[in-house]
Amino acid sequence: MESGNTTANASGPGAVPAVQAAPNTTSVKQLMYAVYDKDLKTVEQLLDTGVNPNIKDEHDWSPLMLASHFGNLEIVVALLSRGADPNLKGVSGWTALMHAARHGHLDVVQILLEGGADSRLEDNKGWTAHELASYHHHTEIASILPSEKSRKTRSRRNRRSTRRRR
Questions:
Q1: pLDDT-derived band at 23, boundaries 50, 70, 90
Q2: What CA–CA distance (Å, rounded) separates 92 from 28?
Q3: Is the CA virtual torsion 137, 68, 80, 90 positive or negative?
Q4: Alpha-carbon distance values, 94 to 17, 18, 22, 35 (Å)
Q5: What CATH number corresponds to the domain at position 154?
Q6: How many domains does the chain have?
Q7: How far apart are alpha carbons 83 and 52 in whole angstroms?
Q8: DSSP state for residue 93 in the 8-state scheme
Q9: Looking at the domain assignment, is residue 35 inside a domain?
């Protein structure tokens, strides 16, 4: 099964630079269906044969985002242990942590944080995982996520508020 990670070798004069091969759509669909079906055995088999855990489907979702959205802790752990990036963003800017926080999956939020998820990341509308959890009344999750945004956002907002005061 192809993983979508193969590159063409280029050497010598006039050679074309190496290009990332397009992901095998069969592999993407198989992995995403296995995650959706909560089929841990198939997820592990696909990952063990070299399917990229960070591959995205046609909706710009990674397997980790999907597993986090549905709160499937075992699959989240399997994906993280095989190199899934907890900070990948989808088209809306949401990360796996945002999906888990929004849907109230405390155990998944904790594992994602242990796996390197950055709770300060913002979606395309400026919301963090903490804000999503708070808005949807998941107070226990909100309490373990820092409410502080990144320095970049704070400084941008400070500049805006300073301009208004002048």
A1: low
A2: 20
A3: negative
A4: 33, 31, 24, 18
A5: 1.25.40.20
A6: 1
A7: 8
A8: S
A9: yes
Assess if residue 96 is contained within a domain. Answer: yes
Asked whether residue 156 carries a pLDDT value surpassing 70, the answer given is no
Class of residue 56 by CB neighbours under 10 A (exposed 0-12, middle 13-18, buried 19+):
middle
Average pLDDT over the chain reads 83
Distance CA 46, CA 52 (A): 9
Of these ranges, 12-16, 49-53, 152-156, 158-162, the one predicted with the greatest mean pLDDT is 49-53
> How many Å apart are CA 160 and CA 18, to the nearest integer?
44
Interval 37-43 mean pLDDT = 97
Quick one: DSSP state of residue 104? Answer: T
- Structure token digits, residue 99: 């999906």
115 domain-assigned: yes
Which of the residue ranges 26-35, 62-71, 84-93, 129-138 would you say has the lowest mean pLDDT?
A: 26-35
Q: Which domain holds residue 31?
A: 25-165
